[in-house]
Amino acid sequence: MNLPNILTTIRLLLIPVFVLVFFSYGTQGLIYGAIIFLIAGFTDVLDGHIARKFNLVTKYGIVLDPLADKLMLLTVLFCLSVKEIIPFWVFIVIAVKDLSMIVSGVFLYKKDTVIPSNFFGKASTVLFYVAILAEALGFHIGSSLLYIAVLSAFVALTNYAIIFFKNKKQKQV
C-alpha cells in the first residue's frame, strides 16, 4: 500500500474517532471534533497531491478517497444534526446524494470503470469543510455557507451524472 492510500485509510479510521470525541467531551467535543475534521481534510489534500505528483494514483485510491470523503462528511453532518447545530434535512439531502454516488461508483467499479473526482466535487467538499468549521467555531456565516455547499453538491452530482451517462453510452455499461 502506498503513502496516499495509507493517508486515505487514516482518514477512514478518523471517522469513529471523530464520533467518540464529538459526543464524549461535552461542549469541547465540538472543538476537538473540528480539529479531527481539519486533520481529515488535510490528509485528503495531502494524499491527492502526493498521488498526482509522484504518479502514485491507484484504482484503490481513486475509489477509496472519495468514499472516505463522503463517509467522513456524512458522519460529521449526522453528528451536527443530532446536536441540532445544523438542520437534519441537510444530512438527509447529502446522505441521499452521496449514497446514490457510492452505489453507482460500486456498480461502475464492478464494470471496471472509475469516474475520478473533478473540480465540482472537490469544490463542494471544500465548501462543506469551510461551512462546517465556521459553524462549529460559532461564525454566523457558517449557515449561509452550508446552504451554498448543499447547492454545490447538487451541481457536482449533476456533473457526475452527465459523465456517468456519457460513459455508459460509450461503453454500454
TrEMBL record:
GO biological process: phosphatidylglycerol biosynthetic process
Family from the record: Belongs to the CDP-alcohol phosphatidyltransferase class-I family.
Protein localization: Membrane
Residue stretches spanning the membrane: 6-23, 71-96, 117-139, 145-165
GO cellular component: membrane
Main location: membrane
NCBIfam families given in the database record: pgsA
InterPro entries: CDP-alcohol_PTase-I, CDP-OH_P_trans, CDP-OH_PTrfase_TM_dom, CDP_ALCOHOL_P_TRANSF_CS, Phosphatidylglycerol_P_synth
Enzymatic reactions: a CDP-1,2-diacyl-sn-glycerol + sn-glycerol 3-phosphate = a 1,2-diacyl-sn-glycero-3-phospho-(1'-sn-glycero-3'-phosphate) + CMP + H(+)
Encoding gene, per UniProt annotation: pgsA
Source organism: Clostridium cadaveris
Its biological purpose: This protein catalyzes the committed step to the synthesis of the acidic phospholipids.
Entry protein name: CDP-diacylglycerol--glycerol-3-phosphate 3-phosphatidyltransferase
Pathway note: Phospholipid metabolism; phosphatidylglycerol biosynthesis; phosphatidylglycerol from CDP-diacylglycerol: step 1/2
Lipid metabolism listed as a keyword: yes
Keywords: Lipid biosynthesis, Lipid metabolism, Membrane, Phospholipid biosynthesis, Phospholipid metabolism, Transferase, Transmembrane, Transmembrane helix
